[in-house]
Amino acid sequence: MSVWNPPRLLGLAGKSLLRDEASNIMALEYLPIELFPPLFMEAFYGSRSETLKAMVQAWPFVRLPLGGLMKKPHLGTLQAVLAGLDILIAQKDRPRRCKLQVLDLRHTAQGFWRMWSGDGAHGYSSTLMAPVAEDRSKAEQSLAPVVVFIELHLKERTMDRFLTYLIRWVEERKASIRLCCKKLKILSMPMENIMKVLSMVQLDCIQEVQVNCTWHLSTLAVFAPLLGQMGNVQRLLLSHIHITALEEQEEQHVVQITSQFLRLHHLRDLHLESPSFLEGCLDEMLRCLTTPLDNLAITHCLLSDSDLSQLSQCSNISQLKGLDLSGVSLTYSSPELLPVLLEKVAATLQELYLDLCGIMDSHLEAILPALSHCPQLMFFSLRGNLISMVIMEKLLRHTSGLPSLSQELDAVKRKVCEEKNEEAPDEVTLSSDFGSELVLLKGGATE
Description:
Layout: H1 9-19, H2 21-27, H3 36-45, H4 49-57, E1 63-64, H5 75-90, E2 102-104, H6 110-117, H7 126-129, H8 138-143, E3 146-149, E4 152-154, H9 161-171, E5 177-180, E6 183-186, H10 191-198, E7 208-211, E8 215-216, H11 217-228, E9 235-242, H12 247-258, E10 269-275, H13 282-287, E11 295-299, H14 305-313, E12 322-324, H15 337-345, E13 351-353, H16 361-371, E14 379-381, H17 389-399, H18 403-420, E15 427-431, E16 437-441, E17 445-446
Parallel strand pairs: 1-2, 2-3, 3-5, 4-6, 6-7, 7-9, 8-9, 9-10, 10-11, 11-12, 12-13, 13-14
Antiparallel strand pairs: 15-16, 16-17
Helix pairs in contact: 1-3, 2-4, 3-4, 4-5, 5-9, 11-12, 14-15, 15-16, 16-17
């Protein structure tokens, strides 16, 4: 027997209003607040550009999360909404009901639309329904620039039509529009286009930067001054920076790049993948760090003994929660360097990655005392290293007293048992990359 779900009154009201678009626009001043989001959705999915343009001018909420409706960028919708903003900006006094201050083009805030359409299990509390607290005068609201939030994933050789239109629109209205981006991801784009896009963005709004493309050191040096203006960056990832310049130019580029770290006063996570330019000059970057890091990853590169020594002496790594040196060859490094580094971060370290480091028995045995001094350690990875089973057993005995690591192991065992619908055993058997098997016990290990 089928269940009939009658249409909701809000949906019916929205469809009714859209049948006569001209009357709908005239009625916006008297439209109940509850009808604005569902009516906007109806206009959006029905491509009613004139209604969208008019609704922007009367939007009774601080934020319009347009990106939450767009599965992919839609130029026609953007043009209609920006046309509405143009009319709003041109007015000396805003319409009585309009509270719009933020246009959000990011793929977030789907919950806002679900709540107002009734699709979610959210209730219409008075807090959620309130458009905005009246904490600013009308004059202040009229003078304040409209903030536009966007996700910047620069992954094409040329800018798409959506981004091109938006950048041009912002460029022509610099005094009244602030273009903000919290996460910048660069995959592939000529530096000329990157500079053009970022010249329109409020760089101090950016909190995360990812450069996941192959750049020469000279290209990174050109980008570095822009990075220095991103004073609120908390997470920075740079990958595959190659050296092609002469030695004299290389040193100049390194100085241009590392000096910008002096301006990053909120940096907490630093990830450097394949930073070949750092070998022998890591100390130059470390000296420019201004705040303690939470996570540091320097992977798939060569570091000298001097680099490792400088790293262990850096005051801004003493509070690290995560350390990743995967792919950094430690085969020929002095065995005493790694223990000194781990003792430096022992009090706070939660995750340690030493995959594919060429670690031998002597290196691992040397760090065992330091590992036993890491009370918060929850994850330790040693994949791809040639280590004997005897040393592995010593490792497990030294770490068996670490409460967080033991809880993590117990959690893994419980999860495995839940999936197999079995009771939790007292041991777990792991296979190494070299065919050996190791049984992890709560108090030790056996082969």
